[in-house]
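User: Run a structure prediction on this.
Assistant: Running it now.
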Amino acid sequence: MSEMRLQRALARAGVASRRAAEVLIEAGKVRVDGQVALLGSRVDPESQKITVSGRRVTLRPVRWVALHKPLGVVSSASDPEGRRTVFDLVPRPAGLTYVGRLDINTTGLLLLTTDGDAVHRLTHPRYRVPREYMVLVHGRPTSEIAGAVKRTVVVAGRPVALTRARVTPGRDGRSLIHLTLTEGRHHVVRKWCEALNLKVDRLARVAFGPIRLDDLSAGSVRPLTDQEIHALRRMVGLIPGEAPETPPRRRPSVNTTTPSRGK
C-alpha cells in the first residue's frame, strides 16, 4: 500500500472523519511507530504501527456501494432536524463518504466509498465525469422545451457543462428531460431548469460515470463489482499505466434526438 496522509488513514480505518481525525492528531492522541504524530504526516498503514489513545488502528478494505437515495433522505452524516440520512440506509457505514451529494428532494444513484483519492477526482471539475439525470418539468410546452435546451445556459457566471438533452412528452402536460452534465455544482440541474423558466416536479440521477442505477429499488444498496470499480478509477486516471477517460475539450453540444447513455 502506498503512503497516505495520517488523517485519511484514520478515516479509512473507521476511527473518525478526517476532520475529527485532525482533532485527535492535534491533541497528541495519535502515535506512529510509538512517536506522537504530527498533523499532515504521511504513513504506510501496512508497514507502520498506528495507535489512537493506545489502541492499534488497522485499515479496512476499500469499499464501494451504490445507493438508490429516496425522497426526503439527507446526504449527510447527521442531521440537526433528525431526518434520515443516507448513512442510515447503508449497512456498516463507518469510513464511507458520498461521491457527489444529492439534495433532499432529489432521488437516484448515490455512490459511497472509503476511497478518498477517487472521491476527490470523481467530483473535481477537471475530470468532467458525466452525471445523467431524468427531470420531470412543467411550465412550457414540450415543443418549446425541445428548442430551449439547445441554448447555452449560464448559471452564476459560468456556462452549464451540458453535453446531451432529450425531451419527451410526459403526462398531464408535463415534459421529461433526459440530460447529461459533466459537472456537479450545487443545485445546477434545478438552476438550469429555472433559467429555462421550467418548474421541476421530480429530479433523479440515473447514472454517475459508468455506474447506472438500473433497477435498484429506492432505499436499497448494492456493492459495486470489481469491473465497475476499475471503470471508475480508470475514468479519472487512478489505474497505473492507463490515461483517464476524459472527453476532448470542446464547446458543450446538445443532441435532442439521440438518447443519452453516458451519465
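DSSP finds six helices and 17 strands in the chain.
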